[in-house]
Recover the amino acids of this structure.
């Protein structure tokens, strides 16, 4: 199953959600942001190389970290050499090998944002409670609808201790999972590890476990 983790505004924690969700699902996470890679880097071929025809996508898979990843390069030359339209074939190839392919999609509404959505079986939309972030996420929600990428869950990230989720669920037309800000999550991010590894009993770890369970339920519909 190909799952696009997306969100309209940059800086809402989309990469963190994608990374931790892939850990919970025991899947592979693909850094699909060709211009602004955020997931841990690896050694050897990366997604830029795959999309430039210099490597196969399986050659770019990294299994030596806590989460199986396909990292993306961080150079302007690599981004220029990559053919974004080849991303669809790369994701479909991974989908034939892995039960879960989680794509950390680009932010905004550029043309390459639609590529993961076009091939995705389902979508997780990430936003914060900020008005601007929700407005941008609603625009991406419309794009996902146009591309028939079903919305599985909305992740309301960086929430307080008692967030009100019903208005958000009503606006997006999907259930909401909240991920609270926490020292445990910040520590995991600094170390490049999923929070379930460093703080398995934390509220953030519980939130990602609930999100994974929700994704499972979406896949069985």
């Amino acid at each position: 199953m190909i799952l696009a983790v997306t969100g309209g505004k940059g800086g809402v924690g989309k990469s963190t959600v994608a990374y931790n969700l892939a850990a919970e699902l025991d899947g592979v996470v693909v850094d699909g942001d060709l211009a602004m890679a955020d997931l841990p880097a690896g050694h050897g071929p990366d997604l830029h190389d795959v999309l430039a025809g210099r490597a196969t996508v399986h050659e770019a898979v990294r299994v030596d970290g806590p989460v199986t990843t396909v990292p993306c390069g961080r150079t302007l030359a690599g981004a220029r050499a990559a053919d974004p339209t080849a991303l669809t074939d790369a994701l479909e190839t991974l989908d034939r090998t892995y039960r879960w392919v989680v794509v950390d999609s680009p932010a905004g509404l550029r043309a390459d944002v639609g590529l993961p959505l076009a091939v995705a079986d389902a979508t997780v939309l990430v936003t914060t409670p900020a008005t601007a972030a929700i407005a941008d996420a609603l625009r991406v929600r419309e794009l996902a609808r146009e591309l028939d990428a079903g919305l599985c869950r909305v992740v309301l990230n960086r929430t307080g201790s008692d967030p009100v989720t019903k208005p958000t669920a009503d606006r997006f037309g999907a259930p909401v999972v909240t991920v609270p800000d926490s020292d445990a999550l910040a520590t995991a991010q600094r170390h490049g590890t999923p929070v379930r590894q460093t703080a398995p009993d934390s509220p953030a770890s519980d939130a990602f476990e609930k999100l994974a369970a929700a994704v499972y339920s979406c896949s069985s519909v």
The chain is about 40% helix and 15% strand. The chain has a mean pLDDT of 89.
